[in-house]
Amino acid sequence: MTIASILLVDDEVPFVEAMTKRLLKRDLEVSAAYSGKEAMEILRKKPLIEVVILDVKMPGMDGIETLREIKREHPLVEVIMLTGHATIESAVDGMKLGAFDYLMKPSDMDVLVAKVQQAASRKRVQENKIIEARMKEITSRRA
Amino acid sequence: MILVVLIVSFTPLVLVSGIILYDFETSYKEKVYAHLEEVVEKHRQGIDTFLTEKLGNLRFLTETFGFEDLSRDSFLQERLATLQKEYAPVFVDLGFVDEHGVQVAYAGPFKLGNAVYSEAEWFKAAIRSEYFISDVFLGKRESPHFIIAVRENYQGRPWILRATVNFMAFNTLVEKIRIGQTGFAYILNRRGEFQTKPLMEITMRRGPYRDFLGIKEQTGTGVHVIQKTDDSGLENIYVAAFLKHGDWLLVYQQLASDAFSDLRRTRVTALVLFVLGGMAIVAMAFFLSRRMVNRIAQSEREKEAAGEQVIETGKLAAIGELAAGIAHEINNPVAVMVEEAGWIGDLLEDEDFKDSKNLEELQRALKQIHTQGHRCKEITHKLLSFARRTDSKIKEIQVNETIMDVVAVSAQRAKFSNGVIETDLQEDLPLMKASETELQQVFLNLINNAVDAMDKTGGIIRITTRLQERGQAPAAILIRVSDTGEGIPQANLSRIFDPFFTTKPVGKGTGLGLSICYGIIHKMGGEISVESTVGAGTTFHILFPVSGDGQAREPHPNGKRSIP
Questions:
Q1: What residues of chain B score a pLDDT lower than 50?
Q2: pLDDT(A34) > 90
Q3: Of A79, A85, B289, B444, which is most buried with the most CB atoms under 10 A?
Q4: Partner-chain contact B335 A25, CB within 8 Å
Q5: How far apart are CA B311 and CA B319, in angstroms?
Q6: Cβ–Cβ of A15/B342 closer than 8 Å?
Q7: What is the pLDDT of residues B47-97, one digit of tens each?
Q8: What value, to the nearest 5°, has the Cα angle with vertex B494 and ends B489 and B500?
Q9: pLDDT of residue B557
Q10: How confident is the model over A52-99, as pLDDT tens digits?
Q11: Residues of B in Cβ contact (< 8 Å) with A104
């Protein structure tokens, strides 16, 4: 049983590779994408992904745009922004757009995993609430 | 420059002074001439009247008394006494001369009874005309005198009553014409011989008088004025008028310098004023042009300094941009390195490596990589702080509160360095508009530097706030952060605000702290300066301007940097 299913999005390939290995070792199910566009494709293919770790500064579709897309298509997927210092303002913008949190690069692995866990559990809580609401709807209809 | 000022200033001065002086001189001379003419004319009339009067006296005698009476000595003596009584010593003697020139009767101090004048010039002239006034001559008595004679007829034979006029008495008439120091008068006859004794010794040259003597007009009121240089080279004014029906010439002579002494005085005064004014103008020209040149030079210097300031500010901005770029670019590889090291660490925890003898050393090395990676992150973090402020949200801040917050954080660190932080904060400071985090960063950096400066010795860090009043409105908030640490050498003082300048041991300082402070303060429109004495301590002065409504001014982009 994995802790959570995550998608790691960063244009820095060696960083994504190293992170992927480390996260996998910590019982996370990790997918990797190297651009915003690729991230959207993977999300469509893999509906079980719960948390996206998203680099803010990327060529082409940047982190903020990607976040907006994710929240539009998959409102329940939690996003953790990953940022160098220079883009901290965009990270704050990201928070306003519904990101779960933001972390500074390089970040402590334990902190990152903890954040992922929190994000995943929030997503589950949200999902459960929706399921409960639907159940109630269904049961009330039946009644 | 000076020459132009001098020409511009002097030209009108010279023109105006010249014109005024010329006009004044002309009118003054005219006035003097008119005055002299009037004087001479008056005296001419006076002398003519004198002569006419004396002649009248004699004619009165000849008409009143006859041949019989007048040819007696005793009668003449009687008459002379009466005349002398009336006219004082004007009449010297009286004589009755017959047609042959023999003085038949005589009354007077000389023994001239029966004197024969048949060959005397005066007699020859007098016998021909009804009355006659002679020139001055010495005659038988060997002293200057002149004769007034009246001719009458007795039984077809002419006789003459003559009187001698005292030369001195007559001379007095002319002598009393005195004006100024050198003005005097005399009478010449047609031949240019003196008829009165000139007061001054003048050479008997007819030159100056020839012009007058040549004048045809012998009567009337014509008064003539000339100005000529005499033999001794002095300029003289001659005023002349004919009298005694053109026989005599009354000449008034005065040195031009004397007659125009007032004019000369005026000229001297004008010259003195001119010279003084000129000197004032020259002085002013020098002073003003020098001041102007100085001012231009100063503004050049200021411009140059401002230019340097702009370059400096630009340099700082460029360094900031560069730093931001480098920081961002470095951050990614560092992140990769840290992650890879982390991955190695993860792998080392696996069973396979548990027995490796170098495991401990490997773990230590990995930890070091991790630590140094995070240090890199700190550096890039600070670099980016320098370029872009983290939280530049501007709000109203009570600076004392911010200082107290920072002091609370730093007090512990100071304590480890045997340091004490003292605060002396003025209450009721106006609120200032600033970013709190930025201000915190400023004070934190300054306090950290102060703590580092007295790391070995311990000491006191004193933070003071004051409201600096300028005139009515509060002008600025002055914040002083001083320490009793080791001080900053003079050579380093000018560089301490430069990015990457640090004197701290390698790995301890980034050289960005004060640079960041500088950037923040100037963005807020404030100023920071430093003074330091090696061994005694360092004081940073920060000045935040406060506008009239009690708030800090809007930040200006090109803040001035002041390093004493």
A1: 204, 206, 218-219, 389-391, 548, 550-564
A2: yes
A3: A79
A4: no
A5: 12
A6: no
A7: 888 888 888 988 888 888 888 888 888 888 888 888 888 887 788 888 888
A8: 95
A9: 40
A10: 999 888 888 888 899 999 999 999 999 998 887 655 567 677 888 888
A11: 377
Using the structure block, give the residue that is written with the tokens 């020459």: B3
- Tell me the C-alpha distance between A47 and A35, whole Å: 18
Q: Do A106 and B338 touch (CB under 8 A)?
A: yes
Structure tokens at A110: 């334990």
Cα separation, A105 vs B335, whole angstroms: 6
Q: Which two tokens stand for residue B227?
A: 């100005």
Inter-chain residue contact A86 with B340, CB threshold 8 Å: no
Short-list B205, B213, B206, B184, CA closest to B196? B184
Peptide bond into B109 cis (omega under 30): no
* Residue B291 to chain A, least CA–CA distance (Å): 53
The C-alpha of A85 sits at a distance from chain B's nearest C-alpha, in angstroms, of 6
DSSP string for residues in B317-357? HHHHHHHHHHHHHHHHHHHHHHHHHHHHHHHHTSGGGTT-T
**The pTM of the whole model exceeds 0.90:** no
Instruction: Please list, residue by residue across B376-398, b when 16 or more beta carbons sit within 10 angstroms of its beta carbon and e when fewer do.
Output: bbebbbbbbbbbbbeeeeeeebe
Residue A43 has pLDDT above 90, yes or no: yes
B296, two tokens: 């231009």
Amino acid (one-letter) located at A102: Y
**What CA–CA distance (Å, rounded) separates B514 from B517?**
5
Q: Tell me the shortest Cα–Cα distance from A112 to chain B, in angstroms.
A: 12
